[in-house]
Design brief:
Belongs to the multi antimicrobial extrusion (MATE) (TC 2.A.66.1) family. The chain has helices at residues 4-19, 23-49, 62-91, 95-131, 135-146. The longest helix is centred in the C-terminal third of the chain and has 37 residues, at 95-131. Helix 1 (4-19) packs antiparallel against helix 2, helix 3 (62-91) packs antiparallel against helix 4 and helix 4 (95-131) packs antiparallel against helix 5 (135-146). The protein has 147 residues and is mostly helical.
């Protein structure tokens, strides 16, 4: 089973790149198809292990999700829009500005992911401290994460 994804991607890549004479575009198409295929396989495997879909649409609780996650959803949409717009505007300027943009984007992504990781770890420690009613540890954690 471990070799199957590699074999599948190799077959797709050779079919699209060489036999259909699509070159780099074919490689990109093969990569996207492979990603969707693997995602579908993993989803089907997950559906055999757990109940993924609720019995009815009323049990989905979309309102509850949107009520609690609307700010995060808005942040993700705003960041995606800004990065896409910046990449589009940078691409019009040439290859050197694109390289500079990509370097800045990687630095930003690194710091953003590190900050998100710190926030998640802090939230987990806070939740554990509150569950155990350890207010001293909760205060210490909050002070350390914020400072």
């Amino acid at each position: 089973m471990g070799e199957l994804p590699g074999i599948c991607q190799t077959l797709l890549l050779t079919q699209f790149s060489f036999f259909l004479h699509l070159g780099v575009i074919g490689a990109a198409i093969a990569h996207v198809i492979f990603q969707y295929l693997i995602s579908l396989i993993l989803l089907l495997k997950l559906m055999t292990m757990v109940e993924v879909l609720p019995p009815s649409l009323k049990h989905l609780q979309c309102r509850r999700f949107l009520k609690n996650g609307i700010l995060l959803l808005g942040r993700v949409i705003a960041v995606t829009f800004c990065v896409t717009l910046a990449a589009s505007l940078t691409a019009r300027k040439g290859s050197i500005p694109v390289a500079a943009f990509l370097i800045c984007l990687q630095v930003w992504l690194t710091t953003s992911l590190l900050a998100d990781g710190l926030a998640m770890a802090g939230q987990a420690i806070l939740a554990t401290a509150f569950a155990k009613k350890d207010l001293k540890k909760a205060t210490k954690t909050a002070t350390r994460v914020v400072n």
